Amino acid sequence: MIQAQDNQRISVDLRGESLESTLWYLQNRTKFIFMYATEDIANITDISVRAKNKTITEILDECLEGTNLTYEVSGTAIVIKKRKTNKITISGWIRDASGEALPGATVTVRGSKHGAIAGLDGHYTFNIPAQEGLILTYSFIGMEKKTVRYTGKKTINVTLNSSSTEIDEVVVTGYQNIQRRDLVGSITTVKAKDILMPSYTTIDQMLQGRVAGMIVTNTSSRVGTAPKIQIRGTSTLLGNQDPLWVVDGIIQEDPLELNASSLMTEDLKNIIGNQISWLNPADIESISILKDASATAIYGSKASNGVIEITTKKNTTDRLSVNYTSNFVMGTRPNYGQFNYMNSKERVLFSQEAFNWGTPYGTEPIKQIYTYEGLLNMYLSHDISSEDFLAQRNVLETQNTDWFKLLTRRSFSHNHNISVSGGTNKYSYAASMGYSNSEGQEIGNDSERMTGRVAITIRPVQKLTINATINGSVSTNNGFAGGVNPMGYATTTNRSIDPDAYYQMKASYPYNSGVKSLSYNFVNERNNSGSKSKSSFMSASLDLKWNILDWLTYQFTGGYSNNNSTNEAWETEQTFYIAETYRGYDFNSVSPNSKEFGAALLPFGGELFTNNAQQYSYNIQNKLQFSKAFNNENRINALVGMELRSSTNKGVSNTVWGYAPDRGEVITLPTTPQAFTPITGSKDEGWGLLKKIYDGGWRKVNTTDNYLSVFATLAYSLKNRYVVNANIRNDASNRFGQDANHRIDPTYSFGFSWRASEEDFMKKYVKWITTLNFRGTYGIQGNAVTRISPDLILNQGKVANLYNRYQSTISQIPNPNLSW
């Protein structure tokens, strides 16, 4: 509405009009005539002005604010024309609330044709005429628009917030960042901040129960133990069943498997850790879980068990920031009130009722006073009187040993993290250190870890971004020797047993058939055995992104890692394990002149297993990504790349007999072949324990796995409704056979999705359905079995006594057809 007050002043009330229609309104209701070039004002829309009793010049000033136009008044003629100004350059980053880049986000200058589209790394830049009052508008699909008034700063970084629950966030798949709506495969993304739990020190434990289709199973209650993870079930019988871990686009290699068959080393295998034990959860930004073939095919022959892609934190601000966090967690100690277990009197009555009902024993109970069955056997054999029997039964009924109090404690852990970040528009940095210490519920089980990380981002020129990262970690885990399970013992052991007693346990010794039982005390067993794992990890990575064009980006990624571990497990001469396996009698219970002493393989000392392992690997990737939108209805995202990966594992394992840690860790000699005189059984060709030492006391491992891979992906979206995905990858490896027909054996996948909720008829007739998506995928996956070699394996062994010649054994025939 325009009302002419006089020749000088008017009142105007306009809403959402174009500049051209606004000028026509003013011309038709005043004495002024407007002259302008149509192309200069064609793109200026959304003019809103409310003026009361204002001059025409005051109204024009308000209408043209934030544009590159000005005007001149000559009598009753007003000429609208472009300003004659210098050019200015505006650049910056567009990210979401979590700091992830938003490729394809747009920035426009209100009232002009000027604008830019953010590249794959979220960076934008454009030149515009310099003028006051510029207003910039930032937008992205699924995000709230944001307007910023230009104040003269050449760098403007903007964070956009999600406008709804629409699935348009950027998903990190390791090799590329892509909008979720353009993906067909099954991918779940979680933010680390949403799953961090103070009671856990590794990210794999925190994923338990957080992702549909992922099963996280704790293999042990001990701290430092890596859980078992399965994504959508088991995919192989012979190969590795663990998912593939990827950190910032670099595949994490499997740790060196501990090759030891002794019962003593069973617990040691649990506390060594897994591929990401070195990673501090506080350094993680987000986690993407790739589940089906359509999502994992791009990773080739190692991804059939699913892929877990981890993105670490990067600095997203220009200001200096220092953060410190810590937490302390104390757990409860187990107690019998949590379980429906019998006390001592109930346990004795149970055994008495079983005897009265004539329930037979599987084997004759050992005669001893520490169990009701043994005490009853002594009474029935007239070894003790009825008075002694009743008196000792009363002792058993009132014993009520609290095994939980003796063997467990309140768990306690504390974690500390400090981080520093800052930078400018040319560079940024983020550094962090973390320390964690955990004492498990079982006395003797604890874990300690220290981590460090430095990440630097450099932007030397407008289209080039360089990221360099260094990670480090040292950790120590203390556990138990195999067969020593405090929690298991506490939950299954008769409470009528005296905790200080050395009761008899059934045993056998191959060189003395007369051995039927040996003394056992669990606390003694725990105190005289154990296992320890120490590891140090270091990795460095370099990531280079070059935005060749707004829609074309080249990326180079290189990484190197080195993982060293020292592991040991031991049992001393005072344990039941050593007595049963190598002596046949309790320590110091026979004289050196006895037959039992001569039949002992190891009369003094225990057993020590040591393992030193080193793993180093490198990963080199070259990728070219194409991402472009056409007329707001067609989007194409394509990527081609190659990857070179190598992993070398070296390890030395050694078993030493005669180990005496309480005597300065000296080694005592076993029984010599000449002095070894078994009471029963074979003399092992005269070798005694030396045969065991000779056959398997020392082992060395040196393996290298090389992979050369090429891959490509394609995602095409039409009208935000119809999406097609395709992935293909081919791996060449020294782990595969040399048959020419198997050298090209790719993994591939196809997928199609239809977002029915975007159809007009759905929006019109089924408004209550906000998201409806139909999806179908097909893919071929593979799993390389690294435990089997494609080549003939010849074991060149020891001298055969019968022939006095070296002997060799073919352990595996060649398999040229071996593939994934």
Which properties best describe this structure?
Immunoglobulin-like; transport; single chain; 14-stranded antiparallel β-sheet; Ferric Hydroxamate Uptake Protein, Chain A, domain 1; Phage tail protein beta-alpha-beta fold; 42% strand; mainly beta; elongated; transmembrane beta strand; 40 strands; Beta-barrel_TonB_sf; 17 helices; transmembrane; 820 residues; TonB-dep_OMP_SusC/RagA; five-stranded mixed β-sheet; 6 domains
Overall helicity: 10-25%
Q: Kindly, what is the distance between the CA atoms of the first and last residues, rounded to a whole number of angstroms?
A: 76 Å
Q: How big a fraction of the residues is strand?
A: 35-45%
Domain module tally: 6
Largest sheet: 14 strands, antiparallel
Overall spatial form:
elongated
Number of helices: 17
Rg over C-alpha atoms, rounded to the nearest angstrom: 37 Å
Structural class: mainly beta
Question: Average pLDDT across residues?
Answer: 83
Please count the beta strands (DSSP E, at least 2 residues each). 40
Detail the poorly predicted runs.
Answer: 1-6, 164-168
Task: Write up what this structure looks like.
By secondary structure, the protein is mainly beta. It has 6 domains: 2-82, Phage tail protein beta-alpha-beta fold (3-Layer(bab) Sandwich), CATH 3.55.50; 87-160, Carboxypeptidase-like, regulatory domain (Immunoglobulin-like), CATH 2.60.40; 171-312, TonB-dependent receptor, plug domain (Ferric Hydroxamate Uptake Protein, Chain A, domain 1, Beta Complex), CATH 2.170.130; 344-399, no CATH class; 437-444 and 473-737 and 753-780, no CATH class; 788-820, no CATH class. 14% of the residues lie in helices and 42% in strands. It has 17 helices and 40 strands. The strands form 10 sheets. Strands 23, 24, 25, 26, 27, 30, 31, 32, 33, 34, 35, 36, 37 and 38 form a 14-stranded antiparallel β-sheet that branches. Strands 16-21-22-19-20 form a 5-stranded mixed β-sheet. Strands 9-8-11-12 form a 4-stranded antiparallel β-sheet, with no helix packed on it. Helix 9 packs antiparallel against helix 10. The longest helix is centred in the middle third of the chain and has 13 residues, at 344-356. It is elongated. Pfam families: CarbopepD_reg_2, Plug, STN. Its main location: membrane.
